Amino acid sequence: MTADDHGDLAVSDRVPANAVDVPRKTLGGLDAEAAAALVAAAADVALVVDADGVIRDVAFGSEEMSREGYAKWLGQPWAETVTAESRPKVEALLRDVASNVATKGRHVNHTSARGADIPVLYSAVQLGGNKRVIAIGRDLRGVAALQQRLVEAQQSMERDYWRLRQAETRYRLLFQSGTEAVLIVDAATDKIVEANPAAGELFGEAERRVVGQAIHEIFDKDNAPAVLALLAKVRSAGRAEDVPLRIVDRRREFLVTATLYRQEKASFFLFLFAPSEGNAASVAVVQTKINLAELVENAPDAFVVTDLEGKVLSANSAFVELAQIVNHEQAHGQSLERWLGRPGVDLDVLIANLRQHGSVRLFSTSLRGEYGAMAEVEISAVSIPSGEEPCLGFTIRNIGRRLSPYVVPAQEFPHSVQQLTELVGRVPLKDIVRDTTDLIERLCILAALDLTRDNRASAAEMLGISRQSLYVKLHRYGLGDLALEIDH
User: Fold this and answer.
1) Which residue has the higher pLDDT, 110 or 41?
2) With a threshold of 0.85, does the pTM exceed it?
3) CB neighbourhood size of 84 (10 A)
4) Which CATH architecture has domain 178-277?
């Protein structure tokens, strides 16, 4: 064969002559059965397709694909065994092989009775002059699973990244807008590395000029021993509170609070400056109020303050999440009735009881989020009619995660849904199914007895079983000392 015959280089020009003869010498003695075994071993699936695109033979090198029952492909057009979007790929692959065009791997999705498509990478080659084609495929489910895990890991990293960015934004906003002077000091050098605008005002210069100074330089020289003692205490205990110190060129004293924290393998001091006007008791009261406000804001239960008509004045983060709103401002000025389950009823009842009794405990209702999510809640409320701004306070607890009243205590019946799911991989499936059936059957019997107020005849009729069968099941599950009754 020469370049003139086919417009290409001769075989002898591309590879050594003896290399062409090697496969003939080593594999020339293979019969059809051995060749089929070789193809099956080299691929997860191998198809023999005739000139009309019909599958004439199938071989599986993957036991998993063999168990899927794909032997039914035999005698069917190859294009009908794949999904609609993969049919043009199959047709193009067969067309390229028939035209003696160099083929490349094609990613094809086979339909599956289990619902999930089976991705397979096919390559094809024509068999001599009989126009039949061998399609050799590799199962890509393992690769697809790895790709899916990679995507999930990437998405998780992106979520973590944005959470860090949001936390940093909140920190920066709090740091810049705070009315108290705040300094960040490097614990290794005792030099100021960051200061907020309030600190610049306190020291009478821009905050960027404060950065770089040693921490002891901003205090009066007479306070040097107290500053050294403060730093030593913070290094040993991690925190020092309310130390009265005087700043350079200022006659007033400030209560200085210092805290030690670590970041990226380095230690830093956080200094807070508060005016020391008034006695220590008033300062403690202010600090207690600040702590109380922080506790309410970070509480796991929703907390809402409204005016006497039920319009929201403030709400904590738990309420923002429960009501499915963007921020606290979105709730401000809105009536609490907007989110309660029974508009025109629940809030009126709560306000009427607050006006009459001053407080309400464990009022059961539901709360509706902005996007339709419903949650069963309990509301406790209190009225503050006096003061500068009379208001109502509502504590809203989500009770949707509580156990159903029909669930039996663990000491009487040790199996639960969580315990059953934990058995997967350690106990045969048939045993798990049996235990699950027992659990569901027991719960249904308890529910029927509760609905019929322990009327066993009515319970049996409700469950669609005979009374004798009900008594047998009651005895089996140990639900009381019951004597078997046989209907005659």
Assistant:
1) 110
2) no
3) 9
4) 2-Layer Sandwich (3.30)
